[in-house]
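Hello Y.,

Per our agreement to keep a running log of every chain we model this quarter, I'm adding this entry. I've kept the format consistent with earlier entries: sequence first, then predicted structure.
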Amino acid sequence: MASEYNSRPLVPEVMVSGDRFGVIRRRPTREESLALEEPFIVGAEAVDCSP
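Predicted structure for the entry above:
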């Protein structure tokens, strides 16, 4: 199962049949990956973690 945990980019998925191959899911661009996190970044509030 693929995951973008810790903002690790997904790898492209490739289908292979004999000596033929093709990309069936391309790697997301950096902008596409950041767009998924934007609501969390924009809406985040600062949290004071000091003792």
